[in-house]
Amino acid sequence: MMAIIAGRPLEETRDMATPFDQLDGWIWFDGKLVPWKEANIHVLSHGLHYGSCVFEGERAYGGEIFKSTEHSERLKRSAQVLDFEIPYSVAEIDQAKRLVLQKNGQSDAYVRPVAWRGSEMMGVSAQDNAIHLAIATWQWPSYFDPAQKMKGIRLDMAEYRRPDPATAPSLAKAAGLYMICTISKHKAERKGYADALMLDWQGRVAECTGANVFFIRDGAIHTPIADCFLDGITRRTVIELARRRGFEVEERRILPDELERFNECFITGTAAEVTPVSEIGSWRFQPGNMTKVLMEDYAEAVQPKRKAA
Predict the structure, then answer these.
(1) Torsions phi, psi of 64, nearest 5?
(2) Per-residue pLDDT reduced to its tens digit, 41-87
(3) Which of 84, 247, 261, 283 is the most exposed place for a label (fewest CB within 10 A)?
(4) Is the pTM of this model over 0.70?
């Protein structure tokens, strides 16, 4: 998800006049570093036409990639769900991410590994296609200004719903699953919202277009069960931090008509980190102390060096 800081998309902090394919730097591509502008694939790649593509979104803080191995493990699992095997081990993927980050000379950065089926066969069946892996990084400053973030962001309600796990590989971080997220986010942004809240196929609260969602009532934290959408690594981290604080965390089914009874709401994700929400459609929330505490705890978790500062 694109985080919003003081009403401004976080991606706007980089030079938006330069398209991503024209940035300078290096990309790790099938086992070697190549100049950024030469990291190209053919237009007839299976991943482009049939969605056989998986990826991760990761963050580096102070030169260290947060939970890098967990992300690499999930990347491998996502590929297996889509019935292909990435030809690199978790350790090799971790090493490659560190290498490209160092080669690009970046400290606070976004890290994007992506794996896909190639172009040997063009059709629904492509069992003999080569599997490719690329890793790109770009500068992404870290923001931990509680005063700015505590204003909260506004969410719309999405028309599309997260699919039934029996109809889509919902637990994989697969490129094709984000098509309805892009549509929903575009519609929300055109209406002046930062993002959209999606329901699941049964009409229960699920997640945002690229972030998990949490609610607070009477000192307890409630979050939807992640069984038809991605159980985010940031989500799991925040749940662990909350329980370490002694906060009650309940993973359960949440219906839309319950939203009026919650006091606080926040979303979590690699880009969003912990971002308070002030509004979802007609429902209003007041970002409060529990959200602020978790924001600060997460900041400490991803940047351990800040403790000694």
Answers:
(1) -115, 130
(2) 999 999 999 999 999 999 999 999 999 999 999 999 999 999 999 99
(3) 261
(4) yes
144 touches 272 (CB < 8 A): no
| Alpha carbon distance 294, 274 (integer Å) | 7
For 243, the enclosing helix (H) or strand (E) is helix 233-244
Quote the CA–CA distance of 106 and 110 in Å, as a whole number: 9
Give the pLDDT confidence of 212-271 residue by residue, as tens digits. Answer: 999 999 999 999 999 999 999 999 999 999 999 999 999 999 999 999 999 999 999 999
- Give the active site residues: 173
CA separation, residue 224 to residues 198, 205, 244, 256, 269 (Å): 11, 7, 20, 11, 15
Number of CB atoms found within 10 A of residue 74's CB: 21
Q: What kind and span of H or E run contains 100?
A: helix 90-103
Candidates 169, 181, 180, 212; CA nearest to 77 is 169
| Structure token pair of residue 7 | 């009403």
**Domains by residue range for the chain, with CATH:** 4-139 (3.30.470.10), 146-308 (3.20.10.10)
Encoding tokens for residue 201? 């196929």
Tell the residue number behind the tokens 């993927």, with chain if given.
Answer: 93
Tell the residue number behind the tokens 């038809």, with chain if given. Answer: 228
> Are 260 and 199 contacting, i.e. CB atoms less than 8 angstroms apart?
no
